[in-house]
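Progress report, Aim 2. The chain analyzed during this reporting quarter is listed below.
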Amino acid sequence: MPYEPPTHTVERSLRATTGAKIVAGVDEVGRGAWAGPVTVCAAVTGLRRPPEGLTDSKLITPKRRTALAVELERWVTAYALGEASPREIDELGMTAALRLAAVRALEGLPVRPDAVILDGKHDYLGSPWRVRTVIKGDQSCVAVAAASVIAKVRRDAMMAELDAAPGCGGYGFGANAGYPSPVHKAVLEELGPTPYHRLSWSYLDAMPRWRHLKKVRLSAEAAALESGGQLGFDF
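Predicted structure tokens for the chain:
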């Protein structure tokens, strides 16, 4: 079915109401995967007309998405990628890991953006970034849509390379990109998790043979006490 093409409406609004000159669109991929990093792309596009067919990466066929990503990487004013590893996700939790990856992407841009359009309804970036959240921003906002396509293609390619990594054969990363799938689940139950799997995820609860590997993330208070640090409370 056809989709309305993304526009610069939100970016124009941010420019008009905040005086922002450089606006970055930010989107993530890999949030719900069992394996691999969470990857965030920050893209700056200006107000130029986008390439034909740009929309949310999930609505584009893999072949077209790959070709579009190559086109977008030449078309955007600037883009940068940031990641949080499975270990960082296990240690920090997903919200903090998303922020870490997003900050890495934003700080990788050649110029710091004045404002950020963030896909979704939850602002996981926070201060000091000036953020406008947009539900389905990857469909409606040009810069966010561009970020979604670049992030998806880059992460999928990286996960496909893991198929050839030692100890990763058979998990089907080239097809499932680390997300749940029947093949992924079956091999996990037989061989257990790789160093690229997230060990704090609940999938291990359903695998008695490997349940002992599950990591429980400490609360901020417990982590501070365990390390001998002090909690940052103001009295």
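The first strand starts at residue 23 and ends at 29. Strands lie at 23-29, 38-44, 78-84, 115-119, 131-134. These observations will guide the mutagenesis work planned for the next reporting period.
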